[in-house]
Amino acid sequence: MSREWLYQTCQPIDAGFETAAREHQAQLTKPPGSLGMLESVAIRLAALQRVAQPSVEHVWISVFAGDHGVAAQNVSAFPQAVTGEMLRNFAHGGAAISVLARALGATLEVVNLGTVNDPGELPEVRRAIIAATTADFCQQAAMSVAQLDAAFTAGADSVRAAHASGAQLFVGGEMGIANTTSATALACALLGETPDRLTGAGTGLDSAGIAHKSAVIARGLALHADANDAVEQLRCLGGFEIAALTGAYIAAAQLGMPVLVDGFITTVAALAAVRINPSVREGLLFAHCSQERGHRIVLDALAATPLLDLGMRLGEASGAATAVPLLRLACVLHNQMATFAQAGVSTA
Ligand SMILES: O=C(O)c1ccc[n+]([C@@H]2O[C@H](COP(=O)([O-])O)[C@@H](O)[C@H]2O)c1
Ligand SMILES: Cc1cc2nc[nH]c2cc1C
């Protein structure tokens, strides 16, 4: 399938609405800048949504799940079967993101891209099976060209459904045992970093486990040293859900739909998206800095300032969901505060 769409220019933010929103913020009854990032986020949302009054009442969350061949290298604190087991938990409404999505009134879509312990048909889970798992990147490329394309498409399909439903914000999440190993390897390749600087505990490795994981990533990087662009690095080192997120972020930016990025794995997928298509960057907002070791470095590479730093490291879009109320508050402040003139308050 053609990949041309990945490179097509994204909808630029609207400079007119951005200027109008900035000027509006300056008139609200507060010292200029005193609402900090709540101001800049409202301005960015107005510019992205091309409206005077931004809103994120209608939120769409897609959680992409997939298994990783590199799990065979003993790089996670949890067994691979958990990926499929968590799909059941999502379907039955018991996962953290199930609870958060309900509390937010958000649409939650779960996408099974391929799990070794496949739970089969489940309510509320879209099956877009690519294979039971990616290959172990210590032995061969994680994905074939066709598998990578299928993952990009699965992500873009979710965004198209979100857009068609009238969603005002797209949130991507992931679930996949061993995916911090894949995401760390991909981040190292994209950034020219070494695994010892980026490798973290994932679901809870101890220091010996982290050292082993770092060595596994170093082996993968050596095997795929010839992969010299972001698409090929993603194919060799990434995973189905990481590539789906990359495709989703690109598609969302092309449709002009704002994106709220979640944690470490999703930020690496966002970095890949920006490397493939730099015009994606201005459509991205960043929810939080996860505890995963490499997250801050990847955020810095994207010049991203996340809204929250709560010591979270769950994934499955939970950090982004937690930041949605802040975006909603930023919007209502922007839309409902009185101006100095309206309130009869003196300016500086
Ligand atoms: O989002 C994060 O920053 C994050 C940090 C650490 C772990 N996770 C989640 O934990 C799983 C991967 O951890 P691991 O140790 O199996 O590589 C995967 O399902 C992620 O959703 C997520
Ligand atoms: C239980 C569990 C839930 C998760 N959700 C996202 N990643 C996860 C990893 C584990 C192990």
UniProtKB/TrEMBL annotation:
Top-level EC class: transferase
Active site per the UniProt annotation: E316
GO biological process: cobalamin biosynthetic process
Keywords, alphabetical: Cobalamin biosynthesis, Glycosyltransferase, Transferase
Alphabetical list of Pfam families matching this protein: DBI_PRT (PF02277)
Catalytic activity from the UniProt record: 5,6-dimethylbenzimidazole + nicotinate beta-D-ribonucleotide = alpha-ribazole 5'-phosphate + nicotinate + H(+)
Domain of life: Bacteria
UniProt-recorded Gene Ontology molecular function terms: nicotinate-nucleotide-dimethylbenzimidazole phosphoribosyltransferase activity
Pathway in which the depicted protein is active: Nucleoside biosynthesis; alpha-ribazole biosynthesis; alpha-ribazole from 5,6-dimethylbenzimidazole: step 1/2
EC number: 2.4.2.21
Function: Catalyzes the synthesis of alpha-ribazole-5'-phosphate from nicotinate mononucleotide (NAMN) and 5,6-dimethylbenzimidazole (DMB).
Family: Belongs to the CobT family.
Protein name (Swiss-Prot/TrEMBL): Nicotinate-nucleotide--dimethylbenzimidazole phosphoribosyltransferase
Gene source species: Dyella tabacisoli
High-level lineage: Bacteria, Pseudomonadati, Pseudomonadota, Gammaproteobacteria, Lysobacterales
Gene: cobT
